[in-house]
Design brief:
The complex is a heterodimer of chains A (about 350) and B (about 170).
Chain A lengths: L11 H4 L8 E10 L12 H17 L7 E4 L5 H9 L5 H5 L5 E4 L5 E5 L5 E8 L3 H16 L6 E2 L3 E2 L11 E8 L1 H5 L3 H10 L2 E4 L12 E6 L7 H29 L1 H17 L5 H16 L8 H10 L2 H8 L5 H17 L1
Antiparallel strand pairs in A: 1-5, 1-8, 2-3, 3-4, 4-5, 6-7, 8-10, 9-10
Chain B lengths: L15 E7 L2 E7 L1 H6 L8 E2 L3 H8 L10 H5 L9 H7 L7 H4 L1 H11 L19 H17 L3 H18 L2
Antiparallel strand pairs in B: 1-2, 1-3
The chains are: A alpha+beta (about 350), B mainly alpha (about 170).
Chain lengths: ~350, ~170
């Protein structure tokens, strides 16, 4: 169903109304787990991997928080469908690229899920709209506790949960928030913010996570340390850091509204003008134009479009989403034309 | 940017995306891991997304920047057969037993990327692991190391005193 349902509402983590949604697009918790007695996914034989997937899938089918989930065998899906799932943050880049057997469980609201036979045997994930790390952790922890009664995790008293890469060992926890920070960039305070992020053992990345570029003033802030701190401390550190960043963004916004309100409106209007008039739009250009427009909308200076429409354009202007909408494969140049048509239609209405 | 070419060699696929901020302009550089390493692309940039492989190979290098001894590279896990070299190149261990087989080489890496060498989070049974006195001392030593590195000398002095007390307690 997830591959057929193209409605924006089906993407619960972006269409939902979460706290601080003006600046926080989503909050995500991910737990890495491995099953004892099996080699890590990339080192396991085909037979071992099949057995592992079967055991993990049985456990996931019985998990309460995944009761309404859909199970997808990824090796039989088309490339566009895999990329579509990645754009919806349901599977990782690695899951798109892998040639191995691999499975994903995705809840109906697309907020809770699990990847099987990723870098680790299990990657449990909860992604919620806005700033809601506490609830995301509660759900993910509940799924983890449930699975721990059905599976024997690879775990040591000293190092905790053992993972394929030692950068995840211990808690196996990666928590992150996706932030839109236009005022900190415009007032040239972003470097200071990045400095604070790295001093606290956190990292700032592009909106698509590891290895992705920073585009459209979207920053994904996540923890780096997984060993030596407990889950609550890691979550508290990220929550506190996010609170401080949002406070700084708010102050910078107020400063801009006092001193450069016309500039904020001008940038929003120019961005809107290009988005509704252009006949060709690249993915990157769209993302970068959405930022000043979003800033205009969240500050209230620009009222022609809603935040929901901007979130929708943010998601559907990505390559696989466009191709799903077009119901055919599109070359890069064709996509740019189709994207411009889609964006124009969506923002004019 | 999947498939984009490295801006330096123009041949390899760019896997490292560096974003620098000049004023309010974001300037992006896309390079392959090899050119990033050869050109020392690090320092006061907004973000350097080194690959896990790069991070690991850097982390196992000693202070002079020399790579781990070739001897370590030839070590292999007696259970799954993964070699330390294989791990260094892929960033991935083969199985849980690799942690023991390569423990000598993994410790410097864990010291660099983690906050201590002992797990403090939940167990599979859902219980939070209470740190033992020894683990507590170890954790505080790690905190002390971080505090000194960050030049937070007030915190460092407090941690030093706490470590001393814990050590005295553990001796009875």
């Amino acid at each position: 169903m997830i591959l057929e349902d193209l409605s924006f509402q089906s993407c619960g983590w972006l269409s939902g109304k979460g706290p601080s949604r003006e600046n926080v697009l989503s909050s995500r918790i991910r737990l890495a787990r491995n099953v004892d007695g099996f080699a890590f996914s990339h080192w396991a034989s085909t037979g071992e991997l099949a057995k592992l997937i079967s055991i993990c899938s049985d456990a996931l089918r019985s998990a309460k928080v995944l009761a309404d989930s859909e199970e997808l065998e990824l090796e039989v899906q088309s490339q566009i469908d895999l990329e579509f799932l990645q754009e919806r943050h349901q599977i990782s880049h690695e899951m798109v690229q892998s040639q191995n057997q691999r499975t994903a469980f995705i809840s109906r609201s697309q907020t809770v899920g699990a990847m099987v036979a990723e870098e680790d045997h299990l990657r449990l994930q909860v992604i919620l709209p806005g700033l809601d790390l506490g609830e995301a952790w509660r759900l993910c922890n509940s799924l983890d506790n449930d699975l721990a009664t059905r599976l024997t995790y690879s775990y040591s008293e000293d190092l905790g949960h053992l993972t394929a890469c030692p950068t995840n060992v211990g808690t196996g926890l990666r928590c992150s928030v996706m932030l839109h920070l236009p005022a900190l960039v415009m007032t040239r305070q972003i470097q200071k913010m990045i400095g604070a992020v790295s001093q606290l053992g956190m990292t700032a990345r592009g909106s698509l996570g590891e290895g992705s570029e920073i585009k459209g003033n979207l920053f994904q802030i996540s923890n780096q340390v997984t060993l030596g701190l407990d889950e609550e401390v890691i979550l508290d550190k990220l929550a506190e850091l996010t609170r401080q960043i949002l406070e700084s963004e708010k102050e910078a916004t107020e400063q801009l509204m006092d001193e450069a309100r016309e500039d904020v409106l001008d940038r929003a209007m120019r961005a809107y003008g290009i988005l509704v008039c252009a006949r060709k739009l690249t993915s990157k250009e769209t993302l970068e134009l959405l930022s000043p427009l979003r800033f205009g909308v969240t500050t209230g200076v620009f009222k022609e479009v809603s935040l929901d429409s901007l979130n929708e354009v943010f998601l559907y202007s990505r390559p696989a989403h466009l191709q799903k909408l077009a119901e055919k494969s599109l070359e890069s140049k064709e996509r740019d034309i189709f994207r411009a048509e889609y964006v124009r239609e969506k923002l004019k209405n | 940017m999947n498939g984009a070419r490295c801006q330096i060699c123009q041949q390899q696929v760019a896997k490292i995306h560096i974003t620098q901020i000049h004023g309010d302009q974001l300037v992006e550089i896309h390079v392959c891991p090899e050119c990033a390493q050869n050109n020392g692309l690090s320092g006061p940039v907004l973000k350097v997304n080194l690959s896990v492989e790069g991070l690991l190979s850097g982390a196992v290098a000693d202070e002079q920047g020399t790579r781990a001894e070739p001897l370590s590279d030839s070590k292999s896990c007696p259970v799954c057969g993964q070699t330390f070299r294989g791990f260094r190149e892929s960033g991935r261990l083969g199985c849980r037993h690799c942690y023991e087989a390569f423990s000598e080489d993994l410790v410097p890496l864990l010291r660099k990327v983690q906050m201590g060498l002992v797990h403090h989070g939940k167990s599979p049974a859902g219980e939070k692991m209470a740190p033992s006195p020894v683990a507590d001392i170890q954790r505080k030593r790690e905190d002390l190391r971080v505090a000194v590195a960050q030049e937070d000398f007030e915190l460092a002095a407090r941690l030093r005193d706490e470590i001393r007390l814990l050590e005295e307690d553990s001796k009875g």
